[in-house]
Design brief:
It is flat, with a radius of gyration of 21 Å. It has 2 domains: 102 residues, Immunoglobulin-like (Sandwich); 106 residues, Immunoglobulins (Immunoglobulin-like), CATH 2.60.40. It is mainly beta. The strands form 4 sheets. Strands 2-9-8-4-6 form a 5-stranded mixed sheet, with no helix packed on it. The chain has a 5-stranded mixed sheet with strand order 11-18-17-13-15, with no helix packed on it. Helix content is 8%, strand content 54%.
């Protein structure tokens, strides 16, 4: 009887270990609001898929709903910690009013076989939008690579951005793709023509190998309400 119980517990342990070490498809941003868009404009954006598991994540198929085009990912096989972009375009020609479109990404993650990304917004006629009254968020750079770093340390980088519009830019929220990344913004309201900063802290504790993380800045910019920043690093253990 004892042997049977031991074998049962052992099987459960192996199952849990396999689930933990398997591929895990994840994305910090599952939807994108493209705001108000003048009819006829082509909207383009990308979603980031990350492998948060312990085995190779395979992207087996990408398809889009009617009215948009989804491109193949930059990489269709992701090592643990790696990420890739899923690009898409939506042609608003001949459309007016609220629009909702979807991109479907199929993977070998046993718990997340199909990821469903949503993007939406409103198509308007050109005279409806008053461009002179809109805020605009502009980042001088949207990516930073820390390079090879020592595992266990924290590393900081500060992104600079500017409100190039004619109205006050309001930062609604800042989302990071994992708990190992923290973000601190200089101010949630940026007047026209002024600059702000976004300080990023990356904690590499218990992280080994090439990794990428995303930070999404949500604002009242009608053309880019969700601005995505990406950081990279390659933590390595240092032995004495």
């Amino acid at each position: 009887m004892f042997n049977k119980i031991f074998v049962f517990i052992l099987c459960l342990s192996f199952t849990s270990f396999a689930q933990l070490m398997g591929p895990k498809a994840a994305s910090q941003q599952m939807d994108y609001d493209f705001g108000n868009v003048v009819e006829g404009k082509v909207v383009d954006h990308y979603f980031v898929v990350t492998n948060n598991g312990g085995d190779i994540l395979k992207i087996t198929n990408v398809r889009a709903s009617c009215g948009c085009t989804a491109a193949k990912p930059e990489k269709d096989e992701l090592k643990p910690g790696e990420s890739t972009k899923i690009n898409f375009k939506f042609n608003s020609a001949g459309r007016l009013g609220h629009q909702e479109k979807y991109v479907y990404v199929n993977t070998n993650d046993p718990d997340n076989r199909e990821m469903k990304f949503k993007f939406y917004g409103t198509i308007v006629q050109s005279e409806v939008i008053k461009k002179t009254d809109q805020p605009r968020i502009y980042f001088k750079e949207t990516q930073h690579d820390f390079g090879v770093v020592k595992e266990g340390n924290s590393y900081n980088y500060t992104f600079s951005f500017k409100n190039t519009g004619k109205a006050t830019l309001k930062i609604k929220d800042i989302k990071t793709s994992c708990g190992c990344t923290a973000a601190l913004i200089s101010s949630k309201e940026i007047k026209p023509g002024t600059e702000g900063t976004l300080k990023i802290e990356l904690d590499t504790k218990n992280r080994i190998g090439r990794m990428s993380r995303t930070i999404t800045v949500e604002s009242n910019d009608p053309e880019e309400p969700n601005k995505i920043l990406t950081i990279f690093a390659e933590p390595k253990k240092v032995t004495n």
